[in-house]
Amino acid sequence: MSPKPAHAAAPVMEVFASFQGEGLYVGQPQVFLRLAGCPLRCRWCDTPGSWATRMDGQARIEAPEGTLREDRVASPFQAALWVAGVEPGEPRTVSVTGGEPLMWPDFILGLRSMVAPRRLHLETAGAHPEALARVLDRVDHVSLDLKLPADMGDPVELTAAEGEPAPIDEAAPVTAEDWRMARRRCLDLLQDRDACAKVVVTADRDPRDYDELFEDVARRAADLPVFIAPVTPVGDCAAPSFDHLVEVVEHARELDLDVRVLPQVHRAMGIA
Ligand code: SF4
């Protein structure tokens, strides 16, 4: 089997086996494939090391026999070999995360057949609906972030050097209206799909600020389970109180949403 052409390659930060710490499949043993490159700037980001594409870096491969360092730019074929190499036992669901993995839709499309028959899950920030539409029929589950525009810094344009794989040119949302449009288009795409939504809640936002997110879910993908994730404290982002969470949750419940509160379990366990 020959490797995929270069246009389907992507920068891989790390590949490791762990337990899913968020969303609908929480607790499930999975393999995580983290791609580099994210144009967004969430104020609670816990993986700023994934922002730059950094093609010249190395990928960390956590194989059972020890950590391997490999050239970062990988074809889907190479990535699938790494996935198989880190599995401690039977094949696992593969969760493609980032960064923002939708920077690399051709890589995700190529990965589909390479990791079969494993399930392929996608974790996305929900800022690039055109890229999501491209890969949607080729992934088995989508975990979609719903973000308050006020929590987002200005996006940064990702570039690639001559001869390197280039991220997509779909522009990231900038204004609150851009974010609203992107969110609604993503929710339309996920209607009746195997998917869930995640809303990170911080102490300094009014519980009613999240209403616009919940109202969009109720109108466009009402069956989507919505996970409320109290922020893991970072920088000036403090975790909400119990009462604060209750208020947020009750607003979602007023819209008849399937809402659940779930902190980042992998953080609580102290694992990757
Ligand atoms: S989308 Fe993810 S990687 Fe990008 S800034 Fe937000 S939390 Fe960080």
List keywords for this structure.
272 residues; alpha/beta; TIM Barrel; 11-stranded mixed β-sheet; 7 helices; disordered N terminus
At a glance:
With 272 residues, the protein is α/β, with parallel strands linked by helices. Helix content is 26%, strand content 22%. Strands 1, 2, 3, 4, 5, 6, 7, 8, 9, 10 and 11 form an eleven-stranded mixed sheet that branches.
Secondary structure: elements and pairs:
Layout: E1 10-19, E2 29-35, E3 58-63, E4 66-71, E5 73-74, H1 76-86, E6 93-97, H2 105-115, E7 120-124, H3 129-135, E8 141-145, H4 176-190, E9 195-201, H5 211-220, E10 226-230, H6 242-254, E11 259-261, H7 265-269
Parallel strand pairs: 1-3, 2-6, 6-7, 7-8, 8-9, 9-10, 10-11
Antiparallel strand pairs: 1-2, 1-5, 3-4
The structure holds iron/sulfur cluster.
Iron/sulfur cluster is lined by residues 38, 40-42, 45, 47, 50, 98-100, 125.
Structure report:
This protein has 7 helices and 11 strands. By secondary structure, it is an alpha/beta fold. A hairpin with a 2-residue loop joins strand 3 and strand 4 (66-71). The longest helix has 15 residues, at 176-190. It has one domain: Alpha-Beta Barrel (TIM Barrel), CATH 3.20.20. The two termini are 32 Å apart. It has helices at residues 76-86, 105-115, 129-135, 176-190, 211-220, 242-254, 265-269; strands at 10-19, 29-35, 58-63, 66-71, 73-74, 93-97, 120-124, 141-145, 195-201, 226-230, 259-261. Strands 1, 2, 3, 4, 5, 6, 7, 8, 9, 10 and 11 form an 11-stranded mixed beta sheet that branches. Residues 1-5 have low confidence and may be disordered. Helix 4 runs parallel beside helix 5.
